Amino acid sequence: MAEKVLPREMTGAELASMLKSSINFKSLGGLRCEELKLTDDQMQWWRDAKIGMFVHWGLYSILGRGEWVRHNEQIPWDEYKALANEFNPKDFDIHEWTDLAKEFGAKYMVMVTRHHDGFALWDSPGSYEHFTSYETASGRDFVKEYTDAAREAGLRVGLYYSPMDWRFPGYFHPEELPESANAMKAQCYAQVEELVSKYGPIDILWYDGAWLAHKGSDTTSAWLWEPVKLNKMVRKYNPLTIMNPRSGWEGNFYCDEGSHEIEGGIIPVPWEKNMCVCSGTSWGWMPNDPVSDFDWLIHMLVDVICRDGNLLLNVGPDRNGHIPEPVKARMREIGVWLKENHEAVYGTRGGPFEPVDKVFGSTYREKEVYLHIMDPEKFAGVTLEPLTQKILSCSYKGEALSFTQDASGIRLQLPETDTKEPDMIVKLTLDAPIAFKKSADIYFTGKGE
């Protein structure tokens, strides 16, 4: 029998150094478990999808000061709990979200089902003190409404869940108050089981907040949560659910969170950029939160896909579940761009050319390579790396471009144009396909971060 080859261990510092990258993966060094891993084939739909829409909505949306408002402002529990009596969006139809996701060009969604404040947006018997939308003013199971509507729209279904809960003193003092900490853990197991067993196939389970006492990391808190045990339960109901690493298990993909720009090389493992369409000051709704510039958002999208990642872009509906009109307008504007340029995005992989920061990157699929050029002036002096395949044609918006290809590389003659666009896409058609690379078998230890 052949000896099993273990994944190469790599520290977080090595990752940044190897790629000269600005990425900051969350929760490196999670517990390993081979049976929880998925194959490249099982991950393919997610790798092909490229674009997802994140939704943060809950009691905090009533106050409009961010999803951390209860903790940041130390709002007394009785006062915060009373907000559930106001959370009753009578005119809200969740198709508003799924319709926008489709217009945006998302292939999957991730809905926050319960954030750190403990308020569950579904009929959850496992909820501590029955703190749920179903048992308070609205009397609604928003997770059911969402999962039904998402599937109806042809979107893959993702659920966000936070194991931590500020209502438990044992969260802040897990060793000193083990009974409270274990009660919080029991709620987590009960609620995760509800989410993965009651609502049909769950395509993505997106954990957040497994760290304890607001210090350490999801990984260092694995002693309490036992994430391998937790996620084996998930697999019992949903063998193909794709999970992130935020439960303390290493996960099926990595997360880079926040609005910092992406620089560096192609990432050799499945990964996702998580960010807000607005300022990023809060994931939840805030009044008059400025919407990010269209060109900048397209640059972010291109930087992500050219480094072989997915983009999960967040919106924050208001207390009534409505998404602000300026946000809708920007998401639709991106959707128009994606519809026009869909073949250069969906179903592609980053490469074969390594990106040059703020100048260009590339994506490819079989016999087509798409150059995403953000700075045509700087690109004019670039010689692309050689390809073993022969280029049959080179075109921009259907018009042929001149090019040379030899052993030293590839040079293009870009068209002269007065039109400034965030991403000039040039298509190369080859005589033979480029095979997708398999995901690298790397275990990021997290040391040296």
Topology (SSEs and partners):
Elements: E1 8-10, H1 12-19, H2 40-49, E2 51-55, H3 60-63, H4 69-72, H5 77-81, H6 95-104, E3 108-114, H7 142-152, E4 156-161, H8 169-172, H9 178-198, E5 204-207, H10 222-225, H11 227-237, E6 242-243, E7 254-257, E8 271-276, H12 294-305, E9 310-315, H13 325-340, E10 349-350, E11 360-373, H14 376-379, E12 391-396, E13 399-400, E14 403-406, E15 409-412, E16 424-434, E17 442-444
Class derived from helix and strand content: alpha/beta
Task: Measure the end-to-end span.
Answer: 37 Å
Strand percentage lies at 15-25%
Q: What is the CATH homology-level superfamily of the largest domain?
A: Glycosidases
Number of helices: 14
The best one-word shape is globular
Which CATH class of the largest domain applies here? Answer: Alpha Beta
How many discrete domains? Answer: 2
- How would a crystallographer describe the biggest sheet? 8 strands, parallel
Unreliable spans are: none
CATH level 3 topology of the largest domain: TIM Barrel
| Overall mean pLDDT | 94
What is Rg?
23 Å
In the CATH hierarchy, the architecture of the largest domain is Alpha-Beta Barrel
Overall number of strands: 17
In short:
The chain is an alpha/beta fold. 28% of the residues lie in helices and 20% in strands.
